[in-house]
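Now read these lines:
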Amino acid sequence: MPKLDNQTIQLALVAAVALAMLLQVIILFAVFIVLRKTARSIREDIETLRSSVTPIILNTRELLTRLIPKIEETTSDLAVLAHNLRLQVVDVQTAADEIIDRVRRQAGRIDSMLSNLLDAVERASAFMADTVAKPLRQLSAVLASAKAVIESLRTVDPAAARSRQNRASGDGDMFI
């Protein structure tokens, strides 16, 4: 076995470090090549995207420059329309309030007129009832008395006629 002295160990360490650095340089060079290819690919994709998106952006810009005045005009027209609509709603509300007030007054008048009419009909019916019913009751009483007189003249025994009349009415059993 060879003798390991300090110089040999240092030489072996320097060789190992040099080999590690060489390996690191090779790996970094490979990473650099891969990154450069990726950057080119990304650049190409961005250029393709830019070439397809640029016309859309330009068309959109042109469309907006044409539409902005129309949008502003439409917005101002809508504001005027909303203002006019508010004024008309206020007018309609005022008219509706007036109509409702008039309807309430007319309903009150109709209610009082119908109440007066019904009171007059009630008074007239009471008058008619008194005017017609009172003479009819008197006539009915006169007829009943005439019937009683005729019945009493027809029968020989007035007590028997009264007892027959009481039995015919059906309430003889209830009397105690």
The helical segments are 6-154, 158-169. The chain has a mean pLDDT of 87. The chain has one domain: 11-155.
